[in-house]
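Researcher: Let's do a round of design. I'm pasting the structure tokens now; please hold your answer until I've finished.
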């Protein structure tokens, strides 16, 4: 195809078949430029903004992109909760001080607010699986900032119960991380030598959805809901547990408890979004 034909096709495609924003349904303007690869040395909020603009501009209008909120310090040094005050250093929040977590540290790149909530719902409940790649790369960006590549041995997604997996058709967390090695090779980015183990944890109890439950109810609902399928894969290993949204931390803390009980060296947590 000649360059002229390609140009005509591009103009026709952008004017006649302009995509709509997944959140507000307005037309999406074509991006003026593309920045490929990781942003390099920068503070986290700037890096996240660069990646969000690059990765989600195909799916969101600029107004919605600008409405996404990156997690910024100061935040809880354990659970990653951003504090209301924009001054001071990272320190433990009241909940982590009074109720110590089983996991070591939890981090997320974005705040779970209205616009990003809608994006995750499009992905999880409305079958927009094309979002798995950009959201997965966003997670990989966060991993590169929060962890040294040699500090993790095994990456474990939070599992779905088989009944819910059959109903939904996919584990939304596993889809985010399954192509990390491929993405890292294309960027390129040295991701280290860890293994992704999708079946180490099994959700044995079909618990009620956590949405709408309070902190105590969430903890009771998820208690003893998981079993370990293969302890040999995690004994002495440094685990990165991955989930889509961190709300109260009940789910990941229960998973961490089980992994540590069966011999994991430590468990860290990475999620796409942090509720506040």
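Researcher: That's everything. Go ahead.
Model: Designed sequence:
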């Amino acid at each position: 195809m000649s360059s002229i034909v390609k140009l005509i096709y591009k103009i026709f495609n952008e004017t006649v078949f302009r995509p709509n924003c997944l959140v507000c349904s307005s037309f999406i303007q074509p991006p003026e430029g593309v920045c490929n690869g990781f942003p390099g040395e920068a503070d986290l909020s700037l890096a996240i903004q660069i990646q969000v603009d690059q990765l989600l501009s195909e799916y969101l209008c600029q107004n919605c992109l600008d409405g996404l909120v990156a997690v910024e310090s100061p935040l809880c040094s354990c659970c990653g909760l951003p504090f209301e005050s924009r001054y001071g250093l990272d320190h433990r929040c009241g909940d982590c001080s009074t109720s110590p977590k089983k996991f070591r540290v939890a981090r997320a790149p974005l705040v779970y607010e209205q616009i990003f909530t809608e994006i995750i719902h499009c992905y999880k409940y409305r079958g927009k699986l094309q979002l798995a790649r950009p959201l997965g790369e966003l997670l990989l960006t966060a991993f590169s900032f929060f962890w040294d590549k040699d500090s993790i041995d095994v990456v474990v997604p939070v599992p779905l119960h088989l009944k819910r997996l059959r109903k939904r058709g996919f584990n939304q967390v596993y889809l985010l991380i399954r192509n990390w090695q491929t993405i890292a090779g294309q960027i390129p980015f040295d991701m280290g030598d860890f293994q992704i183990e999708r079946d180490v944890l099994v959700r044995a109890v079909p618990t009620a959805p956590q949405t709408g439950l309070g902190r105590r109810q969430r903890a009771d609902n998820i208690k003893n809901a998981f079993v370990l399928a293969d302890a040999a894969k995690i004994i002495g290993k440094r685990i990165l547990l991955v989930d889509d949204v961190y709300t109260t931390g009940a789910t990941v803390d229960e998973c961490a408890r089980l992994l540590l009980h069966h011999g994991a060296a430590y468990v860290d947590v990475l999620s796409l979004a942090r509720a506040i």
